[in-house]
Specification:
The protein is of the alpha/beta class. It folds into two domains: about 55 residues, Orthogonal Bundle (DNA polymerase, domain 1), CATH 1.10.150.530; about 290 residues, TIM Barrel, CATH 3.20.20. It is built from eleven helices and twelve strands. The strands form two sheets. A ten-stranded mixed sheet has the order 1-2-3-4-7-8-9-10-11-12, covered by helices on one side. Strands 5-6 form a two-stranded antiparallel ribbon. Helix 5 runs parallel beside helix 6.
């Protein structure tokens, strides 16, 4: 589903929350029910042009078309991995961003946990889950500068609008004839560096007149922008939070996750200890494992000590590092990863090993780089 020509008009209708869409129609002298009609063509039965809003009079469609457009992204390529993850590359269509690419990933959902017996791992195959997850981008590129991430190598190319974020979900709904079960803000970009657009996008996703997601189906990952994460949590208290920790000491984290110089490990721990969580909710700690960097016995011991005061409020995802061309890091030996998981479980820490989908199409965690 793509619009046939690039538009340079001011905004996409997908940029507006349902309440803003109602205000837009009121501003052009139309009654509220016109907004509800438009919402149906945006989120219930998506179409690729305003001209196809057939329940609106032709004159009104023409008037809207003079000041707004519809689809903010153009699909440039799709690439399916051997494990059924599909990476979609989109071109941004606004005049100032023309030619910039972003990526999202549609993938079958399965448990993050892996059996600790190496000879029982199923590397691939078997019946695929009937649940699906979409990993979406909030920026083109990223300014966070994490040294192990392909997106971080790009620097920041552009901020995405709410519509450019939401449309990644809508377009996949059109392709796969269903909504995803979970939306991950774990694609390109640091979501909290694009706070207003991300919040507007989540508002659209969770609005009953739009995509009607439960907040529990949305997971937002940050490298540690704790002040903005606190504000986000106050707005969407049931949305799930993930923090990319990746190092158990400030010296190491300073060198590979630069945001640590502003929000250090103690700041992260204090946030987790004090944040108001619903009963049973936990914050996910993401730990990208790199051989000889943060997977050693010493680092495991330091991580256990760091997590001990917050054990009841977290779960940990161990993520074997995914190869990125031009970076010096190496993926760890899986025997060491399983040994680390066992030590953490023995310490009472809920710990999983993330199955990295999409590696063979550069669609896995840390590999998105906005290129075809």
């Amino acid at each position: 589903m793509t619009e046939k020509s690039t538009s340079t008009r001011k905004f996409s209708l997908y940029d507006l929350t349902p309440s803003e869409l109602k205000g837009f129609f009121a501003s052009i002298g139309e009654k509220p029910y016109r907004a509800k009609q438009a919402l149906d063509f945006l989120y219930r039965n998506p179409v690729d042009s305003i001209e196809k809003f057939t329940t609106l009079p032709a004159e009104l469609r023409n008037e809207i078309g003079k000041i707004a457009h519809l689809t903010p992204l153009r699909l440039r390529a799709s690439l399916e991995s051997s494990d059924k993850a599909v990476k979609h590359a989109y071109e941004l269509l606004s005049e100032k961003k023309s030619g910039i690419l972003i990526e999202s990933v549609w993938m079958p959902t399965e448990s993050a946990d892996r059996d600790s017996s190496l000879d029982r791992i199923k590397q691939s195959g078997g019946e695929q889950s009937k649940r699906y997850t979409i990993c979406i981008s909030s920026q083109a590129g990223c300014a966070a500068g994490c040294t192990f991430c392909a997106t971080g190598k790009m620097g920041l190319k552009a901020q995405l609008t709410a519509g450019e974020i939401v449309y990644q979900v809508v377009h996949c709904m059109e392709i796969y004839k269903r909504l995803p079960d979970t939306v991950l803000f774990m694609g390109m970009g640091e979501p909290m560096h694009n706070f207003e657009s991300v919040c507007a996008a989540v508002e659209i996703m969770t609005d009953e007149e739009a995509l009607a997601f439960s907040e529990r189906r949305i997971v937002l990952s940050t490298v540690g922008e704790i002040d903005k994460l606190d504000k986000f949590h106050r707005k969407f208290p049931r949305a799930r939070m993930a923090i990319s920790l990746t190092a158990p000491t400030d010296n190491l984290r300073d060198s590979i996750v630069p945001v640590n110089k502003r929000f250090n490990l103690q700041d992260v721990q204090n946030f987790i200890r004090k944040v108001d969580l619903h009963r049973g909710d936990r914050i996910t700690i993401e730990y990208a494992l790199m051989e000889g960097v943060n997977d050693t016995d010493e680092m495991t011991g330091r991580l256990l000590g760091y997590l001990k005061p917050i054990t009841s409020r977290i779960k940990v995802n161990l993520i074997p590092w995914n190869t990125v061309s031009g970076l010096k890091f190496r993926s760890p030996d899986m025997a060491r990863v399983f040994a680390m998981q066992e030590k953490m479980k023995a310490a009472g820490i809920l710990t999983f090993i993330r199955k990295n989908r999409g590696r063979d199409s550069s669609a896995a965690c840390g590999q998105l780089a906005g290129r075809i």
